[in-house]
Amino acid sequence: MKSLEELKAIREKNESKVGVRSESASQTRVVVGMATCGIASGARPVLTALSNAVQEEHLAEKISVTPTGCIGLCQYEPIVEVLEPGKEKVTYVKMTPEKAMEVFRLHLKEGQVVAKYTLGAVQE
C-alpha cells in the first residue's frame, strides 16, 4: 500500500497530464475508421495518404490523423471524420486515397467542406 504522500504525488503528476491533453483541443482531429470492415474496404491507404500529407505539409501541430475502431456505418467504409474545434463533425464516406487528398486540400487546408463525399450526400 502506498503512503498518503505518495498517492498525492501520483495524483498531482496525473492531473498535470490531463492538462496537457486539453491543450490539443485546438487541434483539428481527422479520424479514420480502421476496424475490420474499414481495412477490408481500403481504409489503410486512406489513412496513409492523409498522414503523409499532414507530415509533408508540416501541419502536425494543427492536424492530427488517427485510426479508430468501428464507427458503426460499415456499408459506407472507408470513413473519415473531421472534428474541428467549435464546428460540427463532418463524416466523409466511401473514401479513396484520391478523395482523401481532395478533402485534405479543400477542407483541411482551405476550410471548405467537400459535400459530395459526406454522409449526408450519400443518404439523399
Q: Which stretches of 5+ consecutive residues score pLDDT under 50?
A: 19-23
Radius of gyration: 18 Å
Query: Termini separation (Å)?
Result: 60 Å
CATH homologous superfamily label = Glutaredoxin
Shape: elongated
Give the proportion of residues in helices: 40-55%
CATH architecture: 3-Layer(aba) Sandwich
Share of β-strand residues: 15-25%
Using the coordinates above, name the CATH class. Answer: Alpha Beta
| Distinct helical segment count | 5
What is the domain tally? 1
Would you list the SSEs in sequence order as H and E?
HEHHEEEHH
Spatial strand sequence of the major β-sheet: 2-1-3-4
Give a short account of the largest sheet. Answer: 4 strands, mixed
Structural class: alpha+beta
CATH topology tier name: Glutaredoxin
Mean pLDDT level = 88
The number of E-state strands comes to 4
InterPro entries: Thioredoxin-like_sf (IPR036249)
Keywords: Iron, Iron-sulfur, Metal-binding
Protein name: (2Fe-2S) ferredoxin domain-containing protein
GO molecular function: iron-sulfur cluster binding; metal ion binding
